[in-house]
Structure formats: structure tokens, C-alpha cells
Specification:
By secondary structure, this protein is of the alpha+beta class.
């Protein structure tokens, strides 16, 4: 690779890392996840290892964090607060142990394992047992004096006492400030109740609380401090191990994290890691892994430090919840109801414990919101059992020839036009009767009781017929009699079953226009709408040729439904199937001259429990008289029929002054129009 290209990559990564360092360490408002940051950092580190002569003087691989804000007094750390290196899997962990043990030949090494708390690292100074200063990590060399806020933390000792040993003249304790889960949930509930901004996670809540200029705000927040080490102690505490030093701190009144383990081998460390990962949800605090330390303090001194991290400790992080990868391709899948869903084909990446190579992009609106393109570098997020998703796009890494993604004009399965009415989020294939992707759903709906009502053609039959390639679309149902011998060969389908099916198919040919329209499965067209369309247009030919404006004049048909109906009849493949259905003998009675129905266009509502009839029976009687049955009461409601235990709909009707009728009066009214339950 050319030198200039390597330097350009390094500079780009350095600037990105610096920007996110500032957001994380200084502003306490991280804009990317830890795992995304780690990815950028290790990408830079790998380049520097490959091209050591080109390492930039301001590389963040040699220092920690960003500059301290000026609103707090700056304090220089006597002992720098370095960060830890990371390992992400067992192989990396064992490699860490090999490096440790190679530097400590013929020495027994024990490892101290702690929870990696997801909070804000601080340093506390005690002189003669009295807390005199609290300082943030800052950039590792210089932090911010937050003493007044630190003193408000309830579980943090302000004065040290011990019945076991003398209090040191000087003690510097390092640890993590965070907000336990229960306190975080309570704080967010309070913030929401007051109409204030809630916090995204406990770390942000803790950091935001600690860095308030008014200590009273910090005092009101449920913060906790957990010690994890001693930076200075005069006179020396005389302890020899990390494990003992943590226990020593507890005797001075400090809390430490709720789990610690002393491990005799790196294999045992791995076992503890797996245990902690399983128990993570039960912990009182948020963690993002565990910290592995060489336990012996003398061995720690022997191992020493790298430029920015100790050789004797590492953070063993849980599987990343986010990772960076590239989009190789964007395909469009067609669902059983015709919905087009874009799917990003990714360069496979390990995230959240699994390898992810495909991620749904949901719809064209989401693609445009993210502005994701083929060739883009993206952050893929996954945690627990959550379906992976693209969290963000990195335009900094976009190829120059990356093109904006557009909605396909035709279905990738059947080539029918793709439609998406204004105001709708989902695009759909208009070839509902023909499209292979929608075949099962189209057939299931077509043969259902309220449609063509072909008894016996259940899902098991349909799957067998599809497998035998006998059903390419619904029109093929009416040619199944031509394949009697093949049908008889289907397992558990004897002569009687086959004959019953053929008879049911033949009987279904005599139907009504309303049932036929409903059977077509046009989006937005239910039973009531199908009946309204049949009443309005009287013939299939009139309906097929109706434009959107004419359709919108039909009762119960809104703007979007009108577009779906028009689009359905504009799809050539749908017309082919319709023509085959009519040619197969499907028919209905010729239209009679329309008469004005007594309840034409009125909106009725049914509520409560009806004793003498079902809701479905009441609905059919109303629809037969021209009324439409609505699920909600509005000022346009003509009447509410109230059964037993009628609730909010009855109350709303009373408020709006809508007429209310009981079941007995309703049946009397229906009878006066010739509608009875026997019908």
C-alpha cells in the first residue's frame, strides 16, 4: 500500500477516535458504542503495527481519553490513570496469559477476576483518613476536581475508620462511580414524571450527575462508588496481593463490586467468565465484561506497563453488541402478503455472540433515513436474542461510486408493478393473485369460508398440491379435476376425499359478486368493502375499469384503499388469473336494479354481550339493510346497539347524544325490515 494512502487512513482514524474520545471522556455523551470504538482503535493499532515507521505523533494508541473541561479545576495525577487492554475471546485470553507467564518464568501465577463496571473511573485522596479530593480520570494524566460532588455519594466513606490497623497518612483509592440498575430505573421514572430528559443508560446517568456544577443535583442522584485498586499508600499497607488489598479496602468502609474470584489458572478464569456472562442480568449493576489481573503485587511490578496500559491486567469483554462491517448487496424479499422488504447482505461479522451476514432494513423509508448504500461501512447492533439491525452508517468510509438505493419498480419475484400509496410505509407487489411469493396466502384466503368457501382444501392439501406443482395460482384450483390420478397418489387422500374435494370446488363456482371480490384478497378490501363495491359497480367489468376517483365515492372506501384496488386491476398478471377464473365457470346472478336500502350509508356500533344472537349475525342483518358496522363511536354514528356489560362505547355514545338501542328493540327493528335470525 502506498505510504500516502496509509497515512491518510491513519489520519482519518485518529480524527474519528479523537472526536469520539471527546464525546466519551469530556462531554460524557458517547455517540458510539464501546465495541464500535474498540473496532476503530484496533483498526488503527493494526495499521501502526504493520507500518511502525508511519505512526503519527498524535496517535491515541499512546494515551487515554481527551482533555478535561475547564469548568472544573484541573488536577494532575501523581500516578497516571491508565486504561486496560482488551481481549474478546478465549484465544485472546490465553494469549494474554502466555505473555504474562513468559515474563514470569518458573513462577506460579494466580489471577484475580473482578466485574468490569460500566461507570466513570475516579481517584480519591485521603489524608490521615479524611477525604480531601476526588478527581476524574480525564485524559489519564490530568483529570477534573469533582470533590464536592464525590462527597455526596452515599456509600463512599468520607472519613476512614478501622479497628484492625492504623489509618494510612496518605491513601489514594481508585474505583468506579456508577448508578445501580434499580436507582437508574427510579431516576428515569422521576425524570419522565417531571417531563425532563431521561438517560440512555446508567453510565450516562452517573457521568452526568458527577459533572453537575451544583453538588445538590449529584446528591439527589442514586450514585454508588466501588473501589478496584490502590494507587498510593503511605506508609505502605504491607499487602502482597490484589485480592487481599480489595478485602483490606472493605475493612476501611469501601464497597467493592459484588463478585470477585481468585483463579489458579487461566482455564479457571475462562470458566468464571462464562459464569459471569450467564449471571449478568442478576447483578445489581451494569457490566460489560470482567477484569483479569495478576494477583501478586510483586509480579505486577515485574511485568510493568506498556505506554498506555499495564501488562498485568486486561479487560475480558462480553461479545460485542455492535460491530462494523460492509454492505455487499441489498436484496428485496417479497412476503406472503406481498410486502417488499429490503435485506442487506453483509460481509459476515461476529456480533452479540453470533455471526451475522443478513440484516433486514425494514422498508425504503428506513433505507433513506439511514442513507445506507451498497459498499457502505455500517454498525450492526445485536444484544441477547434481539434481531440484528443496522444502527448507523459511516459516510467517512463510503466508496465514491456508492449509489442511492431506490424502490424497485417491479416485483423481483413476478415482475408485477410495485406500489406504495402516499402516506404508507410499506411497498407491495400488486400481483397478489399471480405472485409466487404470495401464492399460499392467496390460495388460503380464496378458499376460506367467507370467500369461495371450498371445504376440504386446507393447508395440508395446499402444501401437497404446491409440492406437486399443481397450484401456480388460484385459477389452477378449477383444473384439479384434470389430475385425479395424481391426487389419488397423495398420502392419506383416498377416492372419497378426492371426490369430496372436486365436488366442493365445483359447488364453489356459483357464488356472489361480493364474495368473489372479497376472495381476490385485494389489500384493504374486507367483507363489508367487497359488498359495498359489488352494490356500487354491479359488475366485475365495471369494477375493473373504475378509476381511483370513482372508487373513492364508494361507501367504506378511503383514498389509500382506492389506490390499492386500482393498482390490483392494473396489474396484467392479475387480469390473466381473473380471466382464467371466469373461463373456468365461476359465476353469479345477474345484478338486479338497485333499490335504496332503508339503512343505506348509516354507521352502527355493536357493544357489550348479545344474548340472542352473535355479533356476526347482528352485523350481517345491518349490512343487508345497507348499514356499515364500525368498531368505534363518533359523531357520525347513527345508533349504538348495547348488550350486557357495555362499557366505554356506551359512555361515549351518551356524551355525544347518540341513540342507544337494546337487543330486544334491535331485533324488533330488524324484523320490521324483514331481517330475522332464521335468515
Amino acid at each position: 500500500m502506498a505510504t500516502t494512502s496509509v497515512i491518510e487512513q491513519m489520519r482519518q482514524l485518529i480524527q474519528l477516535i479523537a472526536k469520539h474520545n471527546h464525546a466519551y471522556y469530556v462531554m460524557d455523551q458517547p455517540t458510539i458504542s464501546d465495541s464500535e470504538y474498540d473496532h476503530l482503535f484496533h483498526q488503527l493499532k493494526a495499521l501502526e503495527e504493520q507500518y511502525p515507521d508511519l505512526v503519527q505523533s498524535d496517535s491515541p494508541t499512546t494515551k487515554v481519553g481527551g482533555q478535561a473541561l475547564s469548568k472544573f479545576q484541573s488536577v494532575t495525577h501523581v500516578v497516571p490513570m491508565l486504561s486496560l487492554g482488551n481481549v474478546f475471546n478465549q484465544e485472546d485470553l490465553f494469549a494474554f496469559a502466555r505473555r504474562v507467564e513468559e515474563r514470569l518464568p518458573n513462577q506460579k501465577v494466580q489471577y484475580e477476576v473482578e466485574l468490569k463496571l460500566d461507570g466513570l473511573a475516579i481517584s480519591l485522596w485521603y489524608e490521615n483518613g479524611v477525604l480531601i479530593r476526588g478527581v476524574t480520570r480525564g485524559d489519564g494524566e490530568t483529570g477534573e476536581d469533582i470533590t464536592q460532588n464525590v462527597k455526596t455519594i452515599r456509600n463512599l466513606p468520607k472519613v476512614l475508620h478501622s479497628d484492625h490497623f492504623e489509618i494510612p497518612r496518605l491513601l489514594e483509592v481508585r474505583g468506579e462511580v456508577l448508578m445501580p440498575k434499580s436507582g437508574f430505573e427510579k431516576l428515569n421514572a422521576e425524570q419522565e414524571a417531571k417531563g425532563d430528559k431521561t438517560f440512555a443508560n446508567p453510565r450516562n446517568a452517573a457521568a452526568g450527575s458527577l459533572r453537575q456544577l451544583d453538588p445538590n443535583i449529584a446528591a439527589a442522584r442514586p450514585l454508588a462508588f466501588y473501589a478496584y485498586g490502590i494507587a498510593q499508600c503511605e506508609p505502605n499497607h504491607g499487602l502482597t496481593t490484589m485480592h487481599d488489598s480489595l478485602q483490606w479496602l472493605t475493612k476501611l468502609g469501601f464497597e467493592i463490586a459484588e463478585r470477585q474470584y481468585l483463579c489458579n489458572s487461566i482455564q479457571e478464569v475462562q470458566q468464571r467468565y462464562e459464569q459471569i456472562q450467564q449471571e449478568r442480568s442478576d447483578l445489581q449493576v451494569e457490566i460489560d465484561g470482567m477484569v483479569v489481573k495478576v494477583d501478586d503485587l510483586k509480579q505486577q511490578q515485574q511485568l510493568g506497563f506498556l505506554s498506555r496500559e499495564p501488562r498485568w491486567a486486561t479487560a475480558y469483554k462480553f461479545p460485542a453488541q455492535a460491530a462494523l462491517t460492509t454492505v455487499d448487496q441489498i436484496d428485496w424479499q417479497v412476503g406472503r402478503t406481498g410486502t417488499l422488504t429490503p435485506v442487506a447482505r453483509l460481509n459476515p461479522v461476529f456480533v452479540g455472540g453470533v455471526t451475522v451476514s443478513n440484516v433486514t432494513l425494514h422498508n425504503i423509508g428506513e433505507i433513506h433515513r439511514l442513507d445506507v448504500r451498497v459498499g457502505d461501512t455500517v454498525s450492526v447492533y445485536r444484544t441477547g436474542d434481539v434481531i440484528p439491525k443496522v444502527e448507523k452508517v459511516w459516510p467517512e468510509f463510503r466508496p465514491v461510486d456508492a449509489e442511492v438505493v431506490h424502490l424497485p419498480e417491479s416485483c423481483p419475484v413476478c415482475a408485477s408493478p410495485v406500489v406504495m400509496p402516499e402516506g404508507e410505509a410499506l411497498a407491495r407487489c400488486s400481483g397478489g393473485l399471480y405472485c409466487a411469493a404470495q401464492r399460499i396466502e392467496a390460495i388460503r384466503h380464496f378458499v376460506s369460508r367467507k370467500a369461495l368457501d371450498i371445504e376440504g382444501l386446507g393447508d395440508r392439501w395446499v402444501e401437497s398440491l404446491l409440492h406437486l406443482d399443481l397450484l401456480k395460482d388460484v385459477a389452477d384450483i378449477y383444473h384439479l379435476h384434470e389430475h385425479r390420478e395424481t391426487l389419488l397418489g397423495i398420502e392419506k387422500m383416498g377416492e372419497k376425499s378426492v371426490q369430496n374435494l372436486i365436488d366442493a370446488i365445483e359447488a364453489s363456482k356459483k357464488t356472489t359478486l361480493a364474495r368473489f371480490i372479497y376472495a381476490l384478497g385485494i389489500r384493504g378490501v374486507g367483507e363489508t368493502t367487497a359488498r359495498m363495491l359489488a352494490n356500487t359497480f354491479q359488475t366485475l367489468e365495471a369494477l375493473k375499469s373504475a378509476d381511483v376517483e370513482a372508487l373513492k365515492k364508494t361507501p367504506d372506501v378511503g383514498d389509500i384503499t382506492a389506490e390499492w384496488i386500482a393498482d390490483f386491476f392494473l396489474a396484467p398478471h392479475n387480469i390473466e388469473v381473473l380471466d382464467r377464473l371466469i373461463a373456468a365457470g365461476i359465476h353469479w346472478d345477474a345484478p338486479t336494479a338497485p333499490t335504496r336500502q332503508p339503512l343505506n350509508g348509516e354507521s352502527w356500533v355493536l357493544t357489550g354481550t348479545l344474548e340472542q344472537m352473535t355479533r356476526d349475525q347482528a352485523t350481517q342483518m345491518l349490512q343487508a339493510l345497507g348499514a356499515r358496522v364500525s368498531g368505534s363511536v363518533s359523531s357520525k354514528t347513527k345508533c349504538v346497539v348495547a348488550g350486557e356489560k357495555a362499557g366505554s362505547k356506551l359512555e361515549k355514545a351518551a356524551k355525544l347524544g347518540i341513540a342507544v338501542m337494546n337487543e330486544t328493540d334491535f331485533l324488533s327493528l330488524m324484523a320490521s325490515y324483514g331481517q330475522t335470525l332464521s335468515e
